[in-house]
Amino acid sequence: MPLNKKAYRAVLQDKDSLVKQSLLISSKDGLQINPLLANKLLLEIGQLPTIGSLSAQQKLLEIIMAGEEVVPVVNGYSWQNKRADEQRVIRDLYFLYSAEKINEELTFNKNPQIIAHDKNAVLVGLFFTPFELASFLTLSNALQYQAFATLFRQCQIEGKSCEYPIQLLAQVCQAHADPEDALYNLDCQHLLAEQYLYQMRFDDFLGIQKSEDDSSYGLQLWGRTIF
Q1: Taking a C-beta distance cutoff of 8 angstroms, is the pair 119, 106 a contact?
Q2: DSSP 8-state assignment for residue 129
Q3: Of 104, 70, 67, 107, whose CA–CA distance to 88 is shortest?
Q4: What is the DSSP letter of 111?
Q5: Is 50 helix (H, G, I), strand (E, B) or coil?
Q6: Among 90, 171, 109, 160, which residue's Cα sits nearest to residue 135?
Q7: Other Cβ atoms closer than 10 A to 135
Q8: What digits encode the pLDDT tens for the residues 169-209?
Q9: Cis peptide before 130 (omega within 30 of 0)
Q10: Which residues are CB-contacts of 30 (< 8 A; sequence separation ≥ 6)?
């Protein structure tokens, strides 16, 4: 792949057309590939033709290194968006290695109700554009919960309906609804129960929130039903 920056700039001569087609998104952070398109391309990167014989991981690494030539993440300038750089690193870790690398990078708080939504925003882009239940269920319980918690927070901040995220979370909880199941996700169950309360869907809340739940989160939820 070419390493001359001018070569990459030349490719963007049709950027206005690409923006109109929503293939590129122009924002205060600069030009970005549409997340739906980017995630799809990364998942199928093994099909990318190359001169030499490279694995999918090697092809992605070549692209990442080419990106470093244009806008480096390491030792970036003070005016660059550090949050965007941080999230770019997390995305690279996920597609290069596995979701477990994200767990190491994000270091979630032991208290599930303390959530770094700003840092977790990358999870929304990774796992909900698009959402695929089967692959989502392979993630750790912590990643599932943190991703949904941040998705709900984003919807609240942007004034969007939470109905669709609630439907998705209900699917996740239903997949392992038995508390005796090793994959039962108590935090996601709590989060769904909480959303039902916000929506005043009290019958749905009672249907999912266990009466014997004596966890801090669970007791708080029961406490809210009193008021």
Answers
A1: yes
A2: T
A3: 67
A4: S
A5: coil
A6: 171
A7: 11
A8: 999 999 999 999 999 999 999 999 999 999 999 999 999 99
A9: yes
A10: none
